[in-house]
Write a structure and sequence with these properties.
about 400 residues; alpha/beta; Rossmann fold; formyl-coa transferase, domain 3; 6-stranded parallel beta sheet; 3-stranded antiparallel beta sheet
Length: about 400
């Protein structure tokens, strides 16, 4: 870890599971925070457990877990036991931030709610990431990605008008919530640095999604128009769509906003006469005739490789990019040169490529310096060095499956 890490000296007690909470704490770790993931074999993180029956080898072989738990330390602590809860409070007592994304009320029932934790660490910052927030009639509802992207208003806007809403069923909403959580934690740390006071952060994933809908929400707020799904089309720009290219499931997105871009596209397609066609001569006429225009453009794009087409159009000033598949993304020259893709090594999974944090800080670089931890890998450091428990007590706690 760099001595210039932005969050060097900050410790995070991570009670997160699955994705939103773990992603938030992992991003904090890339900025230099020491993150202690508190987990247990009694009820392992779903990301650990979903590949097997629950033995140790299965709990260490899930690449999804690796992707959101890099850089972290791990302690195995059974929170269903009184001593396990007490040890968790002791970890919080030497921490600066607590991250959790359980259902509202669960941490309170465990005796690990904010009111419990400020007693052991008065200036603690605690962020509770939940689907719908800690208050309100939806607070206890299940909240996987399709749920809060729907309530957040995004699903209703994604997809084609003649088809059902698209809930973006790829956990993208969870990652967005985790990313937003980093921002709020950094603001709270800034306030604590100035005032000496910690605080509780109640973050709703559906509200994170809602805040990113942007002008679509403003259209209703200002004009009482409720936007509907429009596929890949734009309210003003045409052409503006995703077009099939040569090859299996290959596509390119093209978006034209100016007359210069339109004329350059006509030149690239070898159709200079379209610039004078009344149906395409202006932005308004192209918008009115975009169905026909899209058909003509796709008849051209389908004969070309998407990446070659990108280079050709971009050279002429036309905004155009392929829809990269995962293998293309991980091997793209731009991604590799900018350091957006790095290789990490895990003791069970071996070498794996992963996407780095989206920040390039010149003085305080965000980095992955260790792989994802094995379950309980750092018990000795946390319980012996950090909490200074006697060896005999640790042995007893392990035998009684408190440290488990």
């Amino acid at each position: 870890m760099s001595n210039n890490s932005a969050l060097k000296g900050i410790r995070v007690a991570d009670f997160g599971h699955v994705l939103a909470g773990p992603y938030c704490s992992m991003l904090l770790s890339t900025l230099g925070a020491e993150v202690i993931k508190i987990e247990t074999r009694a009820r392992p993180d779903e990301q650990r457990a979903q590949h097997g029956a629950g033995d140790v080898s299965d709990l260490e072989s899930n690449s999804n877990f690796l992707e959101v738990n890099l850089n972290k330390l791990s302690v195995s602590l059974n929170l269903t036991t009184d001593e396990g809860k007490e040890l968790a409070r002791q970890i919080v007592a030497v921490s600066d931030v607590v991250v959790e994304n359980m259902r509202p009320g669960v941490m309170d029932k465990l005796g690990l709610g904010y009111e419990d934790l400020v007693k052991v660490k008065p200036d603690i910052i605690m962020i509770a990431l939940s689907g719908f927030g800690q208050t309100g009639p939806l607070r206890t509802y299940s909240a996987y990605n399709p749920c809060f992207t729907s309530v957040g208003g995004l699903a209703h806007l994604c997809g084609y008008p003649e088809k059902k809403p698209n809930t973006m069923n790829n956990s993208g909403g969870d990652a967005r919530a985790g990313n937003a959580g980093v921002f709020s934690v950094l603001m709270a740390l800034n306030m604590r640095q100035r005032t000496g006071q910690g605080q509780y952060i109640d973050q709703s994933s559906c509200e994170v999604i809602n805040s990113m809908v942007g002008d679509q929400m403003m259209d209703y707020a200002m004009n009482r128009r409720s936007p509907k799904r429009t596929g890949n089309r734009d309210a003003v720009m045409a052409p503006h769509n995703c077009y099939r290219c040569k090859g299996d499931d290959a596509w390119i997105s093209i978006a034209v906003s100016t007359e210069a871009e339109w004329q350059a596209l006509c030149e690239a397609m070898g159709q200079p006469q379209w610039r004078d066609d009344d149906a395409f001569a202006s932005a308004m006429s192209r918008l009115q005739n975009q169905t026909r225009l899209d058909e003509l453009i796709q008849a051209w794009t389908i004969e070309h490789d998407a990446v070659d087409l990108m280079r050709r159009l971009q050279a002429l000033g036309v905004p155009a990019m392929p829809s990269f598949k995962a293998e293309q993304l991980f091997n793209d020259a731009h991604m590799l040169e900018t350091g957006a893709v790095v290789e990490v090594r895990h003791p069970v999974l071996g070498k794996r490529k992963t996407i780095t944090p989206p920040w390039r800080l010149s003085e305080t670089p965000a980095t992955f310096h260790t792989t994802a931890p094995l379950l309980g890998e750092h018990n000795d450091y946390v319980f012996t060095q950090l909490l200074k428990l006697p060896e005999a007590k640790i042995a007893r706690l392990m035998e009684e499956k408190v440290i488990y």
